[in-house]
Every structure is written in structure tokens, then in C-alpha cells.
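User: Let's play a game. I give you a shape written as C-alpha cells, and you guess the letters that built it. Ready? Here's round one.
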């Protein structure tokens, strides 16, 4: 009898969902749109499944309950591998969340831990691209434990100030203000292959590091891996021109200062 009642209630719930909501498709940009449901009685209140598409592929899926994010939410790469997954309750992250490296060829965990009321709690684990546990951070005591040597050389991200100093993970990495395509155009326009290097057949890849502050300013330029002093000098010159053109990294809803490692290639053709 209980089983029959449960089936009846589920059926009633589905029927009610179909009757009380309507489907909406909202175009955000040329390549991006979202599909969701709203209450028929109030078109401003989302209720039910939600999907965000880019280039006709799902990049975010989840569920709304009376306009609040609820239940499992997942962010995807174009390959359908996950970038992040966890639960929302009353529009706030809760319980265990897992984040994945967005540039790996498969689902490789980058961080995992627990949320309470939208804030990280207890011990979190952070991994590099090889699946190696490199750091843990206790969000109750703000204590960091780095588990491998020379960790700075293994990542482009190093938080350098505040209570998260030394943590090699952020929620949003720093971005060039007008996007990657504008950044590449800037480099193509301003990066000059030194004449002396051409004459002497000097080429290679220069790895530079610099700080992008919590206000987007750049400083502390260094050569991490040199190709040649002539090429090093040109790489530093161009990157210094990007000052003020960066949107800073964020972590736990704070803007943070990070160390950015950038490779620039000089190839003779």
C-alpha cells in the first residue's frame, strides 16, 4: 500500500510540475543560451531544471527551487567531462564539492572538500595536473600544508598575500580584460623578434613570472626559465605593457594577488 501511495505521489508531482511551469529559452550571446523553467503564475521565478549551452553543448546543468539554486549542479567542458560538481541548498553551496582541471584531457581532480552556507570548511585537498596531492588547507584554522618540493614551478598560480598566502588554487584565475583573443592580438602586435637574435639564429621559449595584484596591477617580473638574455628582455618589455589590463583572480569571493607564469615563444621561420 505504501509503495502504491509513493508512486501516486511521484506521478502527481510530475503532473503538477508540467502544469505549473513553462519552458524558457533565453539567448545570452551569439553562441550561448540557457534553457530553464519558470512558474506560470510568475515568469520571474525559476522552478525546475536548468541548462546553459555554449556552441550547442551543455556547459552548466542544475535545478532551481523557487528561484534558488538547489540540489546537484555540474559545470562541464565541451568534451562533456566535468569541471565541477556539488550541491546547492537555498542558493548556497553545501556538502562535498569536487573541482576538476579544466585543461586536462580527462576528469582530473584539482580540488575537493566541504562547504557550509556557501563557505569552505574543514580540510580541503588540492592536486596538480598529474593527480598528485600537492597541498591541503584547513579553512577552520587557515593553516596550509604543502606536500611537494618546488611546488611554485609546477603551477601558474600562487596566492601571495592575505590569509591564503602560498595556496596554489583560486576560484577564478586572472583574465585579460577583453578576453584571450584580445590578449593574443596584443602579443602579436607588440612582441618583436629582436634583430640581433635573428641574425645569430637565437630562438626558444621564455618563461616569465609576475604578480597580478588584487586590483589588476602587475609587478615583480622575473625570468623563470631563460631562452637567451636578448629574448628574455623582449618578453619582459611586452608583458609590462599589460599593466592595468587584467581582471584579478578571486577566491572565496575575495580578489586576491597571484603569481602568473607565462611562456612566450620566439621561433625563426
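Assistant: Ready! My guess for every position:
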Amino acid at each position: 500500500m505504501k509503495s502504491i501511495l509513493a508512486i501516486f505521489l511521484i506521478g502527481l508531482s510530475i503532473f503538477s510540475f508540467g502544469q505549473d511551469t513553462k519552458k524558457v529559452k533565453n539567448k545570452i550571446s551569439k553562441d550561448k543560451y540557457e534553457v530553464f523553467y519558470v512558474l506560470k503564475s510568475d515568469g520571474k521565478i525559476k522552478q525546475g531544471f536548468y541548462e546553459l549551452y555554449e556552441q550547442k553543448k551543455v556547459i552548466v546543468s542544475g535545478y532551481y527551487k523557487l528561484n534558488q539554486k538547489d540540489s546537484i549542479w555540474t559545470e562541464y567542458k565541451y568534451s562533456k567531462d566535468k569541471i565541477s560538481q556539488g550541491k546547492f541548498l537555498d542558493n548556497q553551496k553545501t556538502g562535498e564539492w569536487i573541482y576538476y582541471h579544466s585543461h586536462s584531457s580527462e576528469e582530473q581532480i584539482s580540488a575537493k572538500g566541504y562547504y557550509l552556507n556557501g563557505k569552505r570548511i574543514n580540510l580541503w585537498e588540492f592536486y596538480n595536473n598529474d593527480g598528485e596531492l600537492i597541498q591541503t588547507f584547513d579553512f577552520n584554522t587557515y593553516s596550509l600544508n604543502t606536500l611537494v618540493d618546488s611546488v611554485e614551478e609546477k603551477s601558474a598560480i600562487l596566492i601571495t598575500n592575505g590569509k591564503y598566502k602560498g595556496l596554489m588554487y583560486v576560484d577564478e584565475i586572472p583574465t585579460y580584460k577583453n578576453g584571450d583573443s584580445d590578449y593574443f592580438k596584443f602579443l602579436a602586435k607588440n612582441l618583436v623578434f629582436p634583430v640581433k637574435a635573428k641574425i645569430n639564429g637565437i630562438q626558444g621559449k621564455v618563461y616569465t613570472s609576475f604578480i597580478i595584484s588584487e586590483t589588476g596591477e602587475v609587478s615583480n617580473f622575473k625570468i623563470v626559465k631563460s631562452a637567451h638574455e636578448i629574448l628574455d628582455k623582449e618578453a619582459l618589455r611586452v608583458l609590462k605593457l599589460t599593466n592595468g589590463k587584467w581582471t584579478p583572480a578571486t577566491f572565496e569571493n575575495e580578489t586576491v594577488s597571484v603569481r602568473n607564469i607565462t611562456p612566450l615563444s620566439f621561433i625563426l621561420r
